[in-house]
TrEMBL record, chain A:
GO molecular function, one term: clathrin binding
Protein name, per record: AP complex subunit beta
Residue intervals of the Beta-adaptin appendage C-terminal subdomain domain: 434-546
Stretches of the chain forming a coiled coil according to its record: none
InterPro entries in UniProt: AP_beta (IPR026739), AP_complex_bsu_1_2_4 (IPR016342), ARM-like (IPR011989), ARM-type_fold (IPR016024), B-adaptin_app_sub_C (IPR015151), Clathrin/coatomer_adapt-like_N (IPR002553), TBP_dom_sf (IPR012295)
PANTHER family: ADAPTOR COMPLEX SUBUNIT BETA FAMILY MEMBER
GO cellular component terms attached to this protein's record: clathrin adaptor complex; endomembrane system
Organism: Cavia porcellus
Family, per entry: Belongs to the adaptor complexes large subunit family.
TrEMBL record, chain B:
Sorted UniProt keywords: Endosome, Golgi apparatus, Membrane, Protein transport, Transport
One Pfam family matching this protein: Adap_comp_sub
Name of the protein in its database record: AP-4 complex subunit mu-1
Organism the protein comes from: Cavia porcellus
Main localization (coarse): other
Annotated PANTHER family: AP COMPLEX SUBUNIT MU
Annotated family: Belongs to the adaptor complexes medium subunit family.
Amino acid sequence: MPYFGSEDVVKELKKALCNPHIQADRLRYRNVIQRVIRYHLPPNEEELFDILNLLDSFLKSSSPGVVIGATKLFLILAKKFPHVQTDVLVRVKGPLLAACSSESRELCFVALCHVRQILHSLPGHFSSHYKKFFCSYWEPHYIKLQKVEVLCELVNDENVQQVLEELRGYCTDVSVDFAQASIFAIGNIARTYTDQCVQILTELLGLRQEHITTVVVQTFRDLVWLCPQCTEAVCQALPGCEENIQDNEGRQALIWILGNHEEGIPNAPYVLEDFAENAKSETFPAVKMELLTALLRLFLSRPAECQDMLGRLLYYCIEEEKDMAVRDRGLFYYRLLLLGIDDVKRILCSPKSDPSLGLLEDQPERPVNSWASDFNTLVPVYGKAHWATIFKHQGTDHCGPELPHTNFSYARQLISEENKERVQELPDSEALMLIPNCQFTAEYFEKTWLSLEVAHQQILPWQGEVHPDTLQMALQVVNIQTIAMSRVGAQPWKAYLSAQDATGCLFLTELLLEPGNSKMQISVKQSETRTEILSRFISVLETVIGTIGDMKS
Amino acid sequence: MISQFFILSSKGDPLIYKDFRGDSGGRDVAELFYRKLMGLPGDESPVVMYHDDRHFIHIRHSGLYLVATTSKNISPFSLLELLSRLATLLGDYCGSLSEGTISRNVALVYELLDEVLDYGYIQTTSTEMLRNFIQTEAVVSKPFSLFDLSSVGLFGAETQQSKVAPSSAASRPVLSSRSDQSQKNEVFLDVVERLSVLIAANGSPLKVDVQGELRLKSFLPSGSEMRIGLTEEFCVGKSELRGYGPGIRVDEVSFHSSVNLDEFESHRILRLQPPQGELTVMRYQLSDDLPSPLPFRLFPSVQWDRGSGRLQVYLKLRCDLPPKSQAVNIRLHLPLPRGVVSLSQELSSPEQKADLGEGALHWNLPRIQGGSQLSGLFQMDVPSLPGPPDHGPSTSAPPLGLGPASLSFELPRHTCSGLQVRFLRLTCRPSGNTNPHKWVRHLSHSDAYVIRI
């Protein structure tokens, strides 16, 4: 494999790609692509487009692994050119859709996860191909769930009718989980296309199926909060469904709606009366608390009908209830009532809906650069949330039995968590502010290096080999850029670093690891002589190198 | 990259286990995987699982689990491709991939794994390079004999059957290094299409999708060049036009990287020098615009007497293929409402069979000729059946749970897109051997053919 350190990157890349051994085996193609990502960031636009043109043919390969790998490379290299990124994502649509309908279920699933990833940034990207995401009856459950999520996200004005029809068909599916997932999906779409969805959900209530009704009522509750304009339609649909709900979440949702929107439901007090009578046999504390709140609200608007009920319920909660949270709430309401009706009104008349919450919850379109480095890895397959829990787990377990080879991703994670804390504890608030992302060309560095005198030299203890990637990452966290680094195992091992202060003062550093690997020599040159800033820079450098050294021992 | 690789049978017994990195920490990783797989909750995907600081990624192939573990965050596409390529490679070497063939060829499998993966890094998966290194022979269950009686008639006369390859022909090990002079040189080319259709309750097609592949299985020595000619009116994309008629159109096509497309533009000829073994030469897709009508239409009529709990379903299945074609192995699967007790049936021809199983009706028809229609009347007792409450006691609206009907079938010698292979020619005769046999077949089968009631 060529080492992409020289300036003739494009020439070396061409040579590598023409190697017949690599051409014959597409899995080695993928290796070449990964090397390019890891070792080289093109310094100027011309070279960047040269490299992209060379690798263009990979996007048309018949193997999905190569195509997706090339896409990731394009997305990362072209991070300053969003139109190139969009163009690449358009070109990769075809192969991704083919992978989504492939015979191999595993490939299908992984492709769907990546489609969802793309939809976070380009929601309209697959809208015209919505039919490819319709579920077949033989597909395993996990694929169907992914497809339903994708359908939710690619809805637009043209396809909403058909997508809703399809989802409506899934709501009566034999599998309870899948039916419930489809109903939640309709609820999601309802935030934008409220009328049609409410109509569909109302029809579903008419089927009087227990698992359907409970989820529909929960969806209504969320919808009423986010889209107050549908409250009337919901209130008309609700009467009669209380007989069908058996499970806790459903009952909680129903009670909430009854309490908050009783003006649209004439027989609300009688329904709540049923619940209140059975409060003793109720096992779920959240339902009881919801019931208390709802009854009190109802009491404010219809005192005559609710007074008795409320009294009995409060008596039960305070005297006989074992769960402390419920008892507490009962006591609170009782004392509030003692104070007077105005105070109660002030506290309990809260807003009935909050449409702005919908805007907060709807994730804004994330720029492609935020997930480009996760594309074509295991991160989209697990989902970001699950991935974060996995790595939190791994970080704390690191003190356990050490694996024989330091894992690159372990190292990266540890550095980002631990080192950031340690490094940020340093005098950050004081004068040393290093500018991030300041790049120097190699000639400029060399010229400046040769023209300055060594301002500071120091020797730090060191053990074992240096891992350049780890070190580079760590230095980047504190805004120190690496100009050049020797390969692992080179004797002697050298590295050249640069950093620039906010005031314009340059720090050029040489790291030298003696053969024998026991001492690392640091030489720092400064463009302006300022001793206090120099000493702070040295302490930052020492901390970083110390952390890397500690990690391996 | 990969830490361990193992193959489990469908019951979880380890058949092959190879540890590349030695970082399993003394645990039985295969056992861990199987337990985790069986205990996974329904909505989590088993494709990539995480347990105890490693990721397990697997595919299922012929009932076996091929699993790779890794502790690094690597591309799932390349891992899945590696696993499928390994499955194909093992199939090529052992004849077919199944529990039996793997158990008989354990030494060969380990040798292959040694060559393909070194310390968890992929070295090569190309059959050409591997041939030079693999020494072990494959063990087959019964030796393939040229004197297979089915192709030789009485007194040596040629029978009709010699025009049909015996079904075990394609499952011979491809890559044996026996330089057996009497070994037949054969090449099999399949045009296989998968049809995925969704038809609404009123009969209009909602979604029509055809995914096609040209698959080549070559027993010829590597390097024999061959030319495959496709229909001349084959057009790619919506705007291309060739010939005078509507032509045969596909939306997208992609080729294997070793195919030479010089003559494709002008004469629709593909040139390639395939290695021994299996290869997918071309893949294409077609949506929504089939040149021929859909193969099947279903006319259901449902009568449901709520009072007595009687459900009567009359299904008329019409085949719209051209009269010379036929469909085989047709199975109709109709989910039924909960609590169906008994079934009585009247079928229009004796070779059909219908039975009730797992909450659904299964109707099996061995063969339907193009243009004909078959029907069946099914009566069931459903004592307690919920459904739309506003309708009267006897209604023709389908009750809840009478699900969409799904059909599975095969259409031999028929392609839905109309694509045909005109010829398959070998440009140079392999030295010394008899004329190699070329078998070409066209086949369509259903992927998911769903008709809503």
